[in-house]
Amino acid sequence: MSPPAPLVSPIARLADRWGAPTQHFWLRGAPPRGAVEFDEETGVWDVHGYPESVAVLSDPEVFSSDTSRRFLPDPGAYDSSGVLTELDPPEHRVLRKLVNRAFTPKLVGEMEPWIADVTGELLDAVDGQDGIELMNDLAYPLPVTVIAGLLGLPAADRDLFRRWADELFPTAAPPAVRAGDEQTAGIEAAFDLERRMNDYFAEHVDDRRRHPREDLLSGLVRAETEGERLTGRALSNFVQLLFLAGYVTTALLLGNTVLCLDTHPEGAALVRRDRTAVPAVIEESLRLMTPFEVVHRVTTRPTVLGDRTLAEGEMVALWLGAANRDRRVFPRPHAFDPGRGSNVHLGFGRGIHYCLGASLARLEGRIAISALLDRFPSLRTDPSNPPVFLQSPEVSGARVLPLLVGRHGGPSSALC
């Protein structure tokens, strides 16, 4: 029996025009082959189901985050100290405690007036124009300004940070255990980027050791957890991850939320009537267009996942965007429905690796989306200049997102 035809939803109709990665079949309304399936080409177990993904994310003892030894041709050449996303307990717990202090609800809440001011300044710079390019004018500079300010990094380095973000996701092929030439070249490019970033952050770490300030980076340099301080390399790796994760996640969240509203006029009408609906709209966009689409784990012993048996040392890819459309959990999974009673999406992960900056990303998203709605009553995509998506299967979102902002524009281009 042939699989059911893809659901023709607004996003499904536009995914090809946007250039969404071919691996993201859920954006096109297509169902997965199964909840857990082995990919012969990559040598990886693909997990598309929600319960199965939660089971993996909730069990670091069986599903380890230390995956470099399976993907890299020479794992010994890679120093993962301080890379929080690749650590298992108990090392993970030590680092997580350090940074949790910077993202308490109280501290994040106190940042709201400053974030609103930054947002206003960025929109002031493009006010009066007929159009804006959302990613360049707001979605990237807002989170990079916020995270740079938290860490005490120079705002003048914003262009450098954007170039790094562009280099992070260059490949159109998913990671494979059976690496080919494209993956090998991608690994070499990633190592080169890592060296340049580490050199940059190491310089600032050294400066904070000599001249402490009242910023997050100084706090990490002097912090002790369980009687230990982070080494220089671990600090540099840690800050690199903290910076880029907070930066890229929020930028994609903003772009994806605008696209969800543009393609679903009923959602746009809702938040224009009632700004208190913005948080629910953001949560639904995180479910429907998940920014980070895939995370990897490796099995530490034989185990059963769903109805499949995995051996020790197997690589597992959790496709969070597919899990977030699992109809066993989300009725009408391809519909944009901010009124869902329980939106338990995996947009920020689950378990010990739940995104530590989730509260900050949500705050930035709420402020920025509200400001866009206030400033531009007819914000809409440009029918003659569609969005251009990032091509890496690891993320989902626009690299370029032109918008028309004229005060008396017509309907959304996506619905023309």
Distance between the termini: 36 Å
Q: What proportion of the residues form beta strands (DSSP E)?
A: 5-15%
Number of domain modules: 1
Oligomer: single chain
Task: Please name the defining characteristics of this protein.
single chain, 416 residues, alpha+beta, Cytochrome p450, five-stranded mixed β-sheet, three-stranded antiparallel β-sheet, 16 helices, 12 strands, globular
Please specify the SSE layout and strand pairing.
Blueprint: H1 10-18, E1 36-39, E2 44-47, H2 50-57, E3 63-64, H3 68-71, H4 91-100, H5 105-110, H6 112-124, E4 131-133, H7 134-139, H8 141-151, H9 158-168, H10 181-210, H11 216-222, H12 232-263, H13 265-273, H14 278-288, E5 294-299, E6 303-305, E7 308-310, E8 315-319, H15 320-323, H16 358-375, E9 380-381, E10 388-389, E11 398-400, E12 402-404
Parallel strand pairs: 2-8
Antiparallel strand pairs: 1-2, 3-5, 4-12, 5-8, 6-7, 9-12, 10-11
Helix pairs in contact: 6-8, 6-16, 8-12, 10-11, 10-12, 12-13, 12-14, 12-16
Characterise the protein shown here.
The chain is globular. The protein has a single domain (10-415), classed as Cytochrome P450 (Cytochrome p450, Orthogonal Bundle), CATH 1.10.630. The relative contact order is 0.19. The chain is built from 16 helices and twelve strands. Mean pLDDT is 86; it is low at 408-416. The chain has helices at residues 10-18, 50-57, 68-71, 91-100, 105-110, 112-124, 134-139, 141-151, 158-168, 181-210, 216-222, 232-263, 265-273, 278-288, 320-323, 358-375; strands at 36-39, 44-47, 63-64, 131-133, 294-299, 303-305, 308-310, 315-319, 380-381, 388-389, 398-400, 402-404. It has 416 residues and is an alpha+beta fold. The chain has a five-stranded mixed beta sheet. Helix 8 (141-151) runs antiparallel to helix 12 (232-263) and helix 12 crosses helix 14 (278-288). 45% of the residues lie in helices and 10% in strands.
